[in-house]
Amino acid sequence: MTPEKIQQCGDALYEALKTCRAIDPLTQTQPGITIEDAYRIQLRMVDRRLAESGERIIGKKIGVTSQAVMDMLKVDQPDFGHLASGMVYGDGATIPANTLIAPKAEGEIAFVLKHDLSGPGVTNADVLRATEYVLPCFEIVDSRIRDWKIRIEDTVADNASSGAFVLGDVVVDPRKIDLSVVGMTLEKNGEIATTGAGAAALGHPVNAVTWLANTLGRLGMGLKAGEVILSGSLAAMVSVRAGDNLKLTLGGVGSASVRFI
Protein backbone atom coordinates (compact mmCIF):
# COMPACT_ATOMS: atom_id res chain seq x y z
CA MET A 1 0.00 0.00 0.00
CA THR A 2 1.16 3.52 -0.68
CA PRO A 3 1.94 5.91 2.21
CA GLU A 4 -1.15 7.87 1.22
CA LYS A 5 -3.36 4.78 1.53
CA ILE A 6 -1.78 3.89 4.88
CA GLN A 7 -2.56 7.37 6.18
CA GLN A 8 -6.08 7.30 4.77
CA CYS A 9 -6.91 3.99 6.43
CA GLY A 10 -5.35 4.99 9.75
CA ASP A 11 -7.34 8.22 9.72
CA ALA A 12 -10.56 6.34 8.91
CA LEU A 13 -10.03 4.01 11.87
CA TYR A 14 -9.25 6.93 14.17
CA GLU A 15 -12.43 8.71 13.08
CA ALA A 16 -14.37 5.48 13.73
CA LEU A 17 -12.86 5.35 17.22
CA LYS A 18 -13.69 8.99 17.92
CA THR A 19 -17.25 8.90 16.58
CA CYS A 20 -18.14 5.29 17.52
CA ARG A 21 -19.15 4.61 13.93
CA ALA A 22 -17.76 1.41 12.45
CA ILE A 23 -16.30 1.14 8.96
CA ASP A 24 -16.24 -1.66 6.40
CA PRO A 25 -13.44 -4.24 6.70
CA LEU A 26 -10.16 -3.03 5.22
CA THR A 27 -9.70 -6.49 3.76
CA GLN A 28 -12.71 -5.69 1.57
CA THR A 29 -12.00 -2.07 0.73
CA GLN A 30 -8.22 -2.49 0.34
CA PRO A 31 -7.59 -5.73 -1.60
CA GLY A 32 -4.05 -6.96 -1.17
CA ILE A 33 -3.51 -5.40 2.27
CA THR A 34 -0.74 -7.23 4.17
CA ILE A 35 -0.04 -7.60 7.88
CA GLU A 36 2.92 -5.24 7.41
CA ASP A 37 0.55 -2.68 5.90
CA ALA A 38 -1.83 -3.24 8.81
CA TYR A 39 0.83 -2.47 11.43
CA ARG A 40 1.69 0.76 9.62
CA ILE A 41 -2.00 1.66 9.61
CA GLN A 42 -2.14 0.83 13.32
CA LEU A 43 0.69 3.27 14.03
CA ARG A 44 -1.07 6.02 12.09
CA MET A 45 -4.28 5.42 14.05
CA VAL A 46 -2.45 5.44 17.40
CA ASP A 47 -0.42 8.53 16.48
CA ARG A 48 -3.64 10.39 15.67
CA ARG A 49 -5.10 9.40 19.04
CA LEU A 50 -2.06 10.53 20.98
CA ALA A 51 -1.73 13.80 19.08
CA GLU A 52 -5.36 14.80 19.52
CA SER A 53 -5.98 13.52 23.06
CA GLY A 54 -2.67 14.25 24.77
CA GLU A 55 -2.54 10.65 25.98
CA ARG A 56 0.64 8.58 26.15
CA ILE A 57 1.52 4.95 25.58
CA ILE A 58 1.55 2.96 28.84
CA GLY A 59 1.93 -0.57 27.54
CA LYS A 60 1.00 -3.20 24.99
CA LYS A 61 -1.66 -5.84 24.51
CA ILE A 62 -1.22 -9.26 22.98
CA GLY A 63 -4.07 -10.69 20.96
CA VAL A 64 -4.85 -13.89 19.06
CA THR A 65 -3.16 -16.04 21.71
CA SER A 66 -5.54 -19.01 21.54
CA GLN A 67 -5.40 -21.71 18.89
CA ALA A 68 -9.12 -21.31 18.22
CA VAL A 69 -8.73 -17.64 17.29
CA MET A 70 -5.60 -18.37 15.23
CA ASP A 71 -7.58 -20.96 13.30
CA MET A 72 -10.47 -18.52 12.81
CA LEU A 73 -8.18 -15.80 11.46
CA LYS A 74 -5.99 -18.30 9.58
CA VAL A 75 -2.71 -17.26 11.22
CA ASP A 76 -0.05 -19.06 13.21
CA GLN A 77 1.03 -16.32 15.60
CA PRO A 78 -0.44 -13.62 17.87
CA ASP A 79 -0.65 -9.89 17.20
CA PHE A 80 -0.13 -6.82 19.36
CA GLY A 81 -1.52 -3.37 19.92
CA HIS A 82 -0.69 -0.26 21.96
CA LEU A 83 -2.30 0.74 25.26
CA ALA A 84 -2.93 4.45 25.75
CA SER A 85 -3.32 6.15 29.11
CA GLY A 86 -6.95 6.95 28.36
CA MET A 87 -7.82 3.24 28.13
CA VAL A 88 -7.09 2.25 31.74
CA TYR A 89 -9.67 1.91 34.52
CA GLY A 90 -9.32 0.84 38.15
CA ASP A 91 -11.04 -2.06 39.87
CA GLY A 92 -14.78 -1.50 40.26
CA ALA A 93 -14.87 1.17 37.58
CA THR A 94 -17.92 2.23 35.63
CA ILE A 95 -17.52 2.42 31.86
CA PRO A 96 -20.04 4.23 29.62
CA ALA A 97 -21.06 1.68 26.99
CA ASN A 98 -21.80 4.45 24.49
CA THR A 99 -18.08 5.24 24.28
CA LEU A 100 -17.57 1.89 22.53
CA ILE A 101 -19.09 0.32 19.40
CA ALA A 102 -19.48 -3.40 20.05
CA PRO A 103 -17.61 -4.16 23.28
CA LYS A 104 -16.67 -7.61 24.51
CA ALA A 105 -14.88 -8.52 27.74
CA GLU A 106 -11.95 -10.88 28.16
CA GLY A 107 -10.35 -12.13 31.35
CA GLU A 108 -6.56 -11.85 31.33
CA ILE A 109 -3.40 -11.68 33.43
CA ALA A 110 -1.63 -8.33 33.21
CA PHE A 111 2.13 -7.95 33.73
CA VAL A 112 3.74 -4.75 35.03
CA LEU A 113 7.46 -4.42 34.28
CA LYS A 114 10.19 -3.17 36.61
CA HIS A 115 12.95 -3.39 33.99
CA ASP A 116 13.14 -2.76 30.24
CA LEU A 117 12.89 -5.78 27.93
CA SER A 118 14.51 -5.63 24.50
CA GLY A 119 14.50 -8.53 22.05
CA PRO A 120 15.32 -10.51 20.09
CA GLY A 121 16.75 -13.22 22.31
CA VAL A 122 14.47 -12.62 25.31
CA THR A 123 13.68 -15.80 27.29
CA ASN A 124 10.89 -16.66 29.72
CA ALA A 125 13.42 -16.30 32.55
CA ASP A 126 14.19 -12.77 31.32
CA VAL A 127 10.49 -11.92 31.39
CA LEU A 128 10.09 -13.17 34.95
CA ARG A 129 13.15 -11.21 36.10
CA ALA A 130 11.82 -8.05 34.44
CA THR A 131 8.30 -8.35 35.89
CA GLU A 132 7.41 -6.37 39.01
CA TYR A 133 4.08 -8.15 39.51
CA VAL A 134 1.02 -9.58 37.78
CA LEU A 135 -2.61 -8.79 38.50
CA PRO A 136 -6.10 -9.68 37.24
CA CYS A 137 -7.32 -7.72 34.27
CA PHE A 138 -10.38 -7.26 32.12
CA GLU A 139 -9.59 -6.32 28.56
CA ILE A 140 -12.58 -4.66 26.93
CA VAL A 141 -12.04 -5.30 23.26
CA ASP A 142 -13.92 -3.32 20.63
CA SER A 143 -13.90 -3.33 16.86
CA ARG A 144 -14.06 -0.30 14.64
CA ILE A 145 -14.72 -2.82 11.85
CA ARG A 146 -18.44 -3.27 11.26
CA ASP A 147 -20.04 -6.30 12.97
CA TRP A 148 -16.65 -7.76 13.98
CA LYS A 149 -16.22 -9.05 10.42
CA ILE A 150 -12.47 -9.18 10.80
CA ARG A 151 -9.52 -10.95 9.31
CA ILE A 152 -6.08 -10.67 10.87
CA GLU A 153 -5.19 -7.59 8.79
CA ASP A 154 -8.35 -5.83 9.98
CA THR A 155 -7.75 -6.38 13.68
CA VAL A 156 -4.04 -5.50 13.46
CA ALA A 157 -4.83 -2.22 11.69
CA ASP A 158 -7.49 -1.51 14.33
CA ASN A 159 -4.86 -1.53 17.11
CA ALA A 160 -5.56 -5.21 17.77
CA SER A 161 -9.21 -4.36 18.52
CA SER A 162 -8.25 -2.52 21.72
CA GLY A 163 -10.96 -0.69 23.64
CA ALA A 164 -10.21 -0.33 27.35
CA PHE A 165 -8.84 -2.35 30.23
CA VAL A 166 -9.56 -2.68 33.93
CA LEU A 167 -6.84 -3.62 36.43
CA GLY A 168 -7.55 -5.36 39.73
CA ASP A 169 -6.06 -4.01 42.95
CA VAL A 170 -4.26 -7.17 44.16
CA VAL A 171 -0.74 -7.90 42.88
CA VAL A 172 1.19 -11.17 42.86
CA ASP A 173 4.82 -12.13 42.26
CA PRO A 174 4.78 -14.33 39.12
CA ARG A 175 7.82 -16.24 40.38
CA LYS A 176 5.71 -17.64 43.23
CA ILE A 177 2.83 -19.07 41.19
CA ASP A 178 2.50 -21.21 38.07
CA LEU A 179 0.45 -18.91 35.88
CA SER A 180 -0.27 -21.69 33.38
CA VAL A 181 -2.55 -23.49 35.84
CA VAL A 182 -4.34 -20.43 37.22
CA GLY A 183 -8.07 -20.97 36.84
CA MET A 184 -10.32 -18.14 35.67
CA THR A 185 -14.02 -17.52 36.18
CA LEU A 186 -15.79 -14.60 34.52
CA GLU A 187 -19.24 -13.77 35.86
CA LYS A 188 -21.80 -11.59 34.11
CA ASN A 189 -24.68 -10.25 36.18
CA GLY A 190 -24.06 -12.85 38.87
CA GLU A 191 -23.91 -15.88 36.59
CA ILE A 192 -20.85 -17.68 35.24
CA ALA A 193 -20.34 -16.57 31.64
CA THR A 194 -17.08 -18.35 30.86
CA THR A 195 -14.16 -20.15 32.47
CA GLY A 196 -10.56 -20.69 31.44
CA ALA A 197 -6.99 -21.15 32.56
CA GLY A 198 -3.60 -19.51 32.16
CA ALA A 199 -2.50 -22.11 29.63
CA ALA A 200 -4.96 -20.63 27.11
CA ALA A 201 -2.48 -17.81 26.43
CA LEU A 202 0.09 -19.55 24.22
CA GLY A 203 0.42 -22.36 26.75
CA HIS A 204 1.59 -19.95 29.46
CA PRO A 205 1.10 -16.18 29.85
CA VAL A 206 4.88 -15.72 30.14
CA ASN A 207 5.24 -17.30 26.68
CA ALA A 208 3.02 -14.53 25.33
CA VAL A 209 5.11 -11.73 26.86
CA THR A 210 8.30 -13.38 25.61
CA TRP A 211 6.81 -13.53 22.10
CA LEU A 212 5.92 -9.84 22.32
CA ALA A 213 9.38 -8.74 23.49
CA ASN A 214 11.09 -10.66 20.69
CA THR A 215 8.62 -9.54 18.02
CA LEU A 216 9.00 -5.89 19.04
CA GLY A 217 12.77 -6.32 19.08
CA ARG A 218 12.79 -7.39 15.45
CA LEU A 219 10.86 -4.19 14.71
CA GLY A 220 13.35 -2.02 16.58
CA MET A 221 11.03 -1.49 19.55
CA GLY A 222 11.23 -2.51 23.20
CA LEU A 223 9.19 -2.79 26.37
CA LYS A 224 9.86 -0.20 29.06
CA ALA A 225 9.94 -0.36 32.85
CA GLY A 226 6.53 0.55 34.24
CA GLU A 227 4.62 -0.60 31.18
CA VAL A 228 1.54 -2.80 31.45
CA ILE A 229 1.39 -5.89 29.24
CA LEU A 230 -1.93 -7.67 28.69
CA SER A 231 -0.92 -11.26 28.03
CA GLY A 232 -3.98 -12.54 26.18
CA SER A 233 -7.47 -13.85 26.82
CA LEU A 234 -7.91 -16.97 28.95
CA ALA A 235 -11.34 -17.84 27.54
CA ALA A 236 -13.95 -16.79 24.99
CA MET A 237 -15.01 -13.15 24.70
CA VAL A 238 -18.21 -12.11 26.48
CA SER A 239 -20.43 -9.46 24.87
CA VAL A 240 -21.39 -6.57 27.14
CA ARG A 241 -23.82 -3.66 27.09
CA ALA A 242 -25.15 -0.95 29.37
CA GLY A 243 -26.42 -2.40 32.64
CA ASP A 244 -24.02 -5.35 32.75
CA ASN A 245 -21.90 -6.06 35.82
CA LEU A 246 -18.82 -8.27 35.43
CA LYS A 247 -16.56 -9.98 37.94
CA LEU A 248 -13.30 -11.77 37.14
CA THR A 249 -11.69 -14.24 39.54
CA LEU A 250 -8.22 -15.71 39.01
CA GLY A 251 -7.29 -18.52 41.40
CA GLY A 252 -4.26 -17.56 43.47
CA VAL A 253 -4.08 -14.11 41.87
CA GLY A 254 -7.19 -12.10 42.76
CA SER A 255 -10.28 -10.54 41.27
CA ALA A 256 -11.52 -7.49 39.41
CA SER A 257 -14.91 -6.03 38.60
CA VAL A 258 -16.40 -3.53 36.18
CA ARG A 259 -19.84 -2.10 35.46
CA PHE A 260 -21.22 -0.72 32.20
CA ILE A 261 -23.73 2.10 32.09
Protein described:
The protein has helices spanning 3-19, 26-29, 35-53, 67-73, 124-130, 152-157, 205-218; strands at residues 57-63, 79-84, 88-90, 93-95, 104-113, 131-141, 162-167, 183-188, 191-197, 228-230, 238-239, 245-250, 254-260. The chain is α+β, with helices and mostly antiparallel strands. It has a single domain, classed as Fumarylacetoacetate hydrolase, domain 2, CATH 3.90.850. A hairpin with a 3-residue loop joins strand 12 (245-250) and strand 13 (254-260). It is globular and about 50 Å long. The mean pLDDT is 96.
Defining key terms:
261 residues, alpha+beta, Fumarylacetoacetate hydrolase, domain 2, five-stranded mixed beta sheet, 7 helices, 30% strand
Draw up the topology in text.
Blueprint: H1 3-19, H2 26-29, H3 35-53, E1 57-63, H4 67-73, E2 79-84, E3 88-90, E4 93-95, E5 104-113, H5 124-130, E6 131-141, H6 152-157, E7 162-167, E8 183-188, E9 191-197, H7 205-218, E10 228-230, E11 238-239, E12 245-250, E13 254-260
Parallel strand pairs: 1-10, 3-7, 4-13
Antiparallel strand pairs: 1-2, 5-6, 5-10, 5-11, 6-7, 8-9, 8-12, 12-13
Helix pairs in contact: 1-3, 5-7
Uncertain spans, ≥5 residues at pLDDT below 50?
Answer: none
CATH architecture grouping: Alpha-Beta Complex
Query: Helix amount, in percent?
Result: 25-40%
Number of helices: 7
Order of SSEs: HHHEHEEEEHEHEEEHEEEE
CATH class: Alpha Beta
**Main sheet makeup:** 8 strands, mixed
Average residue pLDDT: 96
Overall morphology: globular
Distance between the termini: 40 Å
